[in-house]
Amino acid sequence: MYTLATRFCDEIHLYGFWPFPQDQDGNPVKYHYYDSLTYEYTSQSSPHTMPLEFKTLSSLHQQGALKLHIGECDARL
Fold this sequence. Notes:
The protein has helices spanning 2-8, 50-62; strands at 13-15, 67-69. The chain is of the alpha+beta class. It has one domain (1-68).
């Protein structure tokens, strides 16, 4: 989606990418990628590698290619 957004958007803001088991305040964070859910289909693909994705997005943020929002959303937006 990021690659697609670069073709159509002047600014890219991403929310909700946090690969750690706790938020910045130490509260538990639940992710469906790591849940013990069962599905009615089979797939050869593996779940997202969230820590690697976060590292890549952080790097793009540092380069100014996107704005990665990791805290609470601003109520004024």
